[in-house]
Amino acid sequence: MTDSRSFLDNLANLHLVMSVALEHVQGDCHEFATTCPRAHMSQAQTLVSKIRNLAEDLEKEFKSLESLVAEQARLM
User: How is residue 36 annotated by DSSP?
Assistant: First the structure.
C-alpha cells in the first residue's frame, strides 16, 4: 500500500501529464485532422476511444475517492 504522500504525488503527476496532453491536443488537433494520412486517422480514432475509456475509469475512481474522503471527514 502506498503512503498518503505518494498518493498525492501521483495525483499531482497525473494532473501535470493530463494538462500537457490537453495543451498538445488543443494546439495540434486542427493541423493533424487536415494533414494526416488516412491510416493515421484510423489510429487516432482507436487511441481516442481508448483514452475515453480510461477517462471514464478515472471518473469512477475519483467519485469513489471523493466519497471515501467525505466519509472520513465526517468521522473525524
Answer: S
> For the chain, what is the mean pLDDT?
94
- pTM over the 0.90 mark: no
Extended beta strands in the chain, E state: none
* Grid coordinates of 36: 494526416
Q: Between the CA of residue 68 and those of 1, 18, 23, 72, 73, what are the distances in Å?
A: 16, 24, 31, 6, 9
Q: Report the pLDDT value the prediction gives residue 1, as an integer from 0 to 100.
A: 59
Sketch the domain layout of the chain as residue ranges.
Answer: 1-35, 37-76
Q: Mean pLDDT across the stretch 59-69? A: 97
